[in-house]
């Protein structure tokens, strides 16, 4: 207790001297330094998922079979080096390096001696026609004929309508076809169509035409305008003429004849555009019908086609050498089934008639047709010459599109030639200057509905045949044979005749054919049928001359 009082007095003395003492923080536990490393025991949690998975795992291994290797080398049996080296000839090298000596005096003398002979031969070559029509072809020759497109309108096919006509427009990119009937049926009341396809259009659908025009009567023929790509004329079974503008989708009809006293009384089988001589920027439309009349129509502002001129083919006014045996007026009108104008004489044209004759006619004829008809304009008799007939009606004529100036004393040139075909299965090659054919080719034992001359080859033409298992489009090349076709193209089955053909004037490798099945096939011809060979025009003239002899 005495010691406790001593220490208490000391603390009171220090507090009086120094003030209250600062509390001292507790020190480390006994036996430890100020800072030391201390390892605490860890906590361990067992994984039930890992243990369960490890129980299901099986140890597996994969090893491929033993790999076999081998080494091989190739070594030639023997080797030999060879080299060639010419020996340098110093004298020869010096002679080569020396300047060539020219005898200019002798050269001048030689040229003066041969000058006249050389100029004479050059003039002969200049006047020669040995290479007329020859063109260098740097591309490979294509000998195949391909079917590019098979076009049809399903609704027309469902109604068993036939393709009666095809026509290419002025650009050669659009093709039009008309639907109707050329066999038995109620033609006068049957609805038909005119369809167009643009073959250059991206995404062309052969079963969906770009334009479909509903027509209340069968359309028997079509013709695109020669310079306006959107205008197309059609002849109807009712005798009317209609002109459509394919750029107008709502109401494409822009002109029509209507049913008047001037309208044809029979179906119109041919239409043809003519230049209007009185109005430079206008055209006239010519129509031919089995009523024997060939009428010329002009455009009126009110949408009408008015009669401007007309002709009548009358049996009594056909030249006596082959006058048709018809007497009464009711039978005297000769039914016109086809027509083709000469490309080189705007007044001359050829018609085919139901009596089997081909007739050369002229729009410049002034003889009145007898007897007078009830027409708003006087009709004239156009026939100048009749040709030896077929054994049945003539269904198609085609004038030669090739022209070459010839002396009138020489044999007929190709510009005077035309083709005709008919129900006798023959193709006749005629000169417009004589009545007998240059040759008659028996193509088929059945009807021939169409013949067309190639626009680029003077010796090539196409005809539609109905003979054999398949209805065929026949291509003839008179340079190869004048008796058999060069190529036969399968168009349709035997009970679907091919009614119409048309070459593309802008793209001559394209040929369109329409048939009774309601389809239009576009054929791509090979270069053999589109590239004119050397002296081909002379060959055709020689063929015509030999036939005349």
UniProtKB/TrEMBL annotation:
WD repeats: 261-297
Pfam families: WD40 (PF00400)
Domain of life where this protein originates: Eukaryota
Region (Disordered): 1-31
SMART domains listed in its UniProt record: WD40 (SM00320)
Protein name: WDR34 protein
Cytoplasm in keyword set: yes
PANTHER family reported in the protein's UniProt record: CYTOPLASMIC DYNEIN 2 INTERMEDIATE CHAIN 2, DYNEIN INTERMEDIATE CHAIN
A GO cellular component entry from the record: ciliary plasm
InterPro entries from the UniProt entry: Dynein_IC (IPR050687), WD40/YVTN_repeat-like_dom_sf (IPR015943), WD40_repeat_dom_sf (IPR036322), WD40_rpt (IPR001680)
Biased composition (Pro residues): 22-31
């Amino acid at each position: 207790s005495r010691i406790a009082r001593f220490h208490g007095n000391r603390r009171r003395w220090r507090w009086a001297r120094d003030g209250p003492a600062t509390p001292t923080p507790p020190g480390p536990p006994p036996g430890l330094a100020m800072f030391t490393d201390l390892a605490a025991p860890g906590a361990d949690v067992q994984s039930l998922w890992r243990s369960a998975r490890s129980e299901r795992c099986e140890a597996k291994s994969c090893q491929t079979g033993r790999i076999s290797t081998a080494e091989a080398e190739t070594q030639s049996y023997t080797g030999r080096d060879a080299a060639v080296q010419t020996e340098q000839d110093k004298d020869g090298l010096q002679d080569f390096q020396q300047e060539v000596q020219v005898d200019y005096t002798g050269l001048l003398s030689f040229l003066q001696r041969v000058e006249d002979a050389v100029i004479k031969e050059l003039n002969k070559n200049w006047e020669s026609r040995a290479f007329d029509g020859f063109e260098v072809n740097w591309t490979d020759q294509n000998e195949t004929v391909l079917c590019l497109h098979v076009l049809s309108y399903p609704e027309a096919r469902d109604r068993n309508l036939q393709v009666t006509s095809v026509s290419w427009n002025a650009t050669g990119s659009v093709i039009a076809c008309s639907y109707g009937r050329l066999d038995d049926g109620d033609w006068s009341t049957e609805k038909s169509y005119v369809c167009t396809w643009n073959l250059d259009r991206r995404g062309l659908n052969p079963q969906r035409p770009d334009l479909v025009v509903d027509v209340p009567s069968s359309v028997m023929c079509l013709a695109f305008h020669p310079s306006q790509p959107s205008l197309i004329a059609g002849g109807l079974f009712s005798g009317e003429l209609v002109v459509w503008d394919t750029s107008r989708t709502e109401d494409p009809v822009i002109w029509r004849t209507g049913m008047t006293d001037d309208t044809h009384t029979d179906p119109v089988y041919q239409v043809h555009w003519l230049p209007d001589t009185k109005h430079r920027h206008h055209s006239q439309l010519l129509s031919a019908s089995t009523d024997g009349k060939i009428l010329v129509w002009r455009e009126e502002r009110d949408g009408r086609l008015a009669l401007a001129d007309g002709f009548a083919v009358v049996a009594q006014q056909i030249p006596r050498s082959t006058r048709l045996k018809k007497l009464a007026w009711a039978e005297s009108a000769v039914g016109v089934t086809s027509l083709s104008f000469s490309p080189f004489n705007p007044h001359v044209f050829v018609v085919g008639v139901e009596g089997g004759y081909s007739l050369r006619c002229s729009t410049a004829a002034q003889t009145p047709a007898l007897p007078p008809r009830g027409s708003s304009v006087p009709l004239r008799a156009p026939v100048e010459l009749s040709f030896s007939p077929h054994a049945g009606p003539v269904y198609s004529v085609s004038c030669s599109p090739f022209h070459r100036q010839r002396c009138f004393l020489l044999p007929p040139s190709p510009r005077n030639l035309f083709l005709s075909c008919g129900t006798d299965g023959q193709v006749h090659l005629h000169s417009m200057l004589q009545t007998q054919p240059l040759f008659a080719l028996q193509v088929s034992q059945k009807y021939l509905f169409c013949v067309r001359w190639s626009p680029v080859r003077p010796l090539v033409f196409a005809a539609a045949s109905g003979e054999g298992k398949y209805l065929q489009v026949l291509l003839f090349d008179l340079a190869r044979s004048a008796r058999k076709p060069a190529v036969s193209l399968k168009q349709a089955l035997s009970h679907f005749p091919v009614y119409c053909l048309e070459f593309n004037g802008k793209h001559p490798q394209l040929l369109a054919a329409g048939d009774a099945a309601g389809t239009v096939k576009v054929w791509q011809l090979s270069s053999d049928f589109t590239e004119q060979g050397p002296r081909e025009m002379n060959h055709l003239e020689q063929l015509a001359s030999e036939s005349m002899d």
